[in-house]
Every structure is written in C-alpha cells, then in structure tokens.
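Chain X:
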Amino acid sequence: MEARSAKFRIGQVVKHRLYPFRGVIFDVDPVFSNTEEWWMAIPEEMRPSKDQPFYHLFAENEETEYVAYVSEQNLVSDESGLPVRHPRAREFFRRDRKGRYLIDRAELN
C-alpha cells in the first residue's frame, strides 16, 4: 500500500460526513493500522479503502465522549468554532485565542 499525504492535521477539528459526531485529531496513521476484525465489522458497502490516512479523534456526539478511528474519506472540516468537550482534548491540547487546538508541549515530556 502506498501512503498518501494527510488532508487534515493534528489539532484540527473535524466531523464525520455521515454520522453525527465530531472531534479533534490527536494522531494520524498514513494507512489503515487497526485490526482486520475492526475493518471487517464495517458494513461492506461502507467499508473504506485501507490505503488512505486514518485519524484518531477525541470524539463526541450529543450523548458522550470517546476515541474514534476514522478514514479520511469520511471526514470533513468542522468550521463551527465550538470547543470540543472531550476531557482528553483539554489534557493534550491548549486552545489559542482563535480557537485552534495546539499541542501542549508539556504533555509530550
């Protein structure tokens, strides 16, 4: 598999193009890097190609917060400007005055 350049960046807020959830990206895999069982659990007609970037999100929907693993084809940029309420987002990132999520360098040590 040939890796493609990622369209989205760490710290960017995105939303799923089909399902009602959004989140902030905290890691990127250049190609699929989850289990075969996880991939096969996706309905065949919706199963994404493995040769694209996959994103790890501190995600949320109306009811809860969780970690999601999503293919690039299923994400769009979230331009709402609303903060992500996932508690790990506040631990991992800081927000600047414009609402962008920046990596908290202290967390990396």
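Chain Y:
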Amino acid sequence: MKIAIVCYPTFGGSGVLATELGISLSKHGHEVHFIAYEKPVRLNKLNDGLFFHQVQVPNYPLFNFAPYELALSTKLVEVVKTNSIDLMHVHYAIPHAYAAYMAKKMLKDQSINVPIVTTLHGTDITLVGNHPSYKTAVTFSINKSDLVTCVSKSLRDDTLDQFEITKNIHVIPNFIDINKYNIQQAACLEEIPNISDQLTITHISNFRPVKNIKHVINIFNKVQKEINSKLIMIGEGPDKEMAEQFCVDLGISEKVEFLGNTNQVEKKLCHSDLFLLPSRTESFGLAALEAMASKVPVISSNAGGLSEINIHGETGYLTNVDDIESMSNYAISILKDPKILEEFKLRAFKKAESFDINRIVPLYEELYFKALEGFK
C-alpha cells in the first residue's frame, strides 16, 4: 500500500505519533510519503519505503498570512498523482483534513479516487477547532473524511459533544516502541553509576500555557524541600522564559535544568525517578506514556485521556487540575521510600507495555484496508 501522511513536523505528540507510525508502516512493507512544511523531527533516515515531500508556501505581498492550505492541497495532488498513492492519512482536522478534502475533489475531477483517514489529536478539537472562526470548517472536515480516528475515549466524547459529527470515530491510542525503551534501559544500566543520592524529577512538553508550567515548578519547589532532588525540563515554547525566571525568583535555579528540545528523550527519562504532568487538558498524554515506558511513575492532573494511561495508585497518581498541594504530597510519598518507588516504576512499565507499537499499528492497517474497500 502507498500511503501519504500529513502531519506537523514538530516535537508535539501528533507529529511524533505520525512519524513513528509511518516508519513502522514502512517496516511492514508499505510505501510511506510524508508531506509537511519541514521534515518531521523524528524522521531521521529516508529509504526506499520512506519519502518526504516539502510544502513550499510562497510569500506574496497581498497576503498577511501565507495560504498554507492551498499549498498543501496542491502538493497532495502532486504527490498522489506522481506516486500512485492509495490513501491519505492526515493528522489534525485543520488545516490538514480540510486541505486533503480539497485535494480529493481536485483528484476526482481527474478520475482519481483516494480515501482520507483523519486522526484527531486534541488541540484541533478542544482548543483551536472549537473556536467560532473554525468550528464549521472542522465539522465539515471531519464529516467529509472517509474514516476518522482519535487517540483516546475522552477525546472521542469531547468531539461528539462539541461538534455535529455524522461519522463513526474509532479510538486508536497513541503508542510507543517498548523495545526501544528496553534497549535504552539496558544501556543506562551499563553506564557508570551516579554516586549522588539526588533523585530526578522530569517534565516534557511544548511549554504552552495549557501545560501549567508554573505548576511543575511549584510542585518541585515543595518536593525539593523534603527530598534531595533536581528537576529536568525538556522542550521549547512560549512559557519557557517565564519558567526560567520563576526558578530564579524562587531561588531554585541551580536545581533546575532546561534542556530545550532533544532527540534523546528515552536517555533522559531512563535516569528519571518521577514525571510531572499537571496539564489543564491532555487528549492523550504521550509524554506520560513515554515516561512510563522508561519505568518512571507519573503525577498528573486528571484531565482528558490521562486517566486512560496513568492509573491512580498504581502507575502514579491523578489529582484535580490545579491541585498543587495534592500533587506535591503524592510526589513526596512515592519518592521518600525506595521500595515504594520501585514498585511504582515496575507497574508503570507494565501498563506502558499495553501501548506497544506492535499492538497498535495493525489497528491502523485494518482501517486503511477498510477505507480502501469502500472505494472498490
């Protein structure tokens, strides 16, 4: 099967999932063509089964904002025709599903029929998509897709509640390659042991307001007063500068390390003892799953799909959004006892195994064949 995958090329969860999915599909014998304005960050190597096509958006004085959707739909038509693509899989309803539908209509005028599978990731529904300026277009894009998936039951419920959807929405969760984390764990064990008894708390995100970055630092500040610990902050985003200054204001900057974006997430996590994710909302919580796959328990808000991953009292703890006090107390309760910490680590890993890529990718393949059957 020849598949075109459209995604954002950034470090965000949707881009990571789309890239890892495409790489896995190519290993299953499919030909995968990525289409984006930049090469996806996790698409390290191209080969006979993996291709990348860059969307060029020309600057024109008439437009304050370049019409990316037009450029994307045009590129989709070009890639589908040139490479005899069987199916388009787009991640995010807008602008990707919207552009894919326009491409599909243009192709149909040339007697080429290509189905669209749209995967909803969260922001396209809960934040941007629900804005009055976009809601009608989002509804249209979802309903015009041939098949629709989303990454959690919570997101499916939100989508059906907030939009007038006529399509069946299939829940296919995000995934991780558990073998990759096993290999990293083995490599970490071979490293020279750190003599320090200082524990490591980690946070990974795109540092947007919805991630409650200030809460992460406030929780750590309370924990470090009770537990010898340090905080690792991974990612880039609009709240990073504020976070750095907040650490200075609290007098804990020497205990907090900001690493920016990195392709060595697994390596950083394997040296971590606890993961913090106090987000206002999370459609799934891929960063939490990555932590659990690294044998790191999670303290998170009970928001969106997080309760489908992080099991309260087993893999970590869930609290109400903004409940910094409870998150801090739960963190201390896990970290203060090495035996309890080890038990949480093992249970977190066990839960992560159920989201292994080898269990999830076949679910997408089944849907692809179903979409193609509808075009015969």
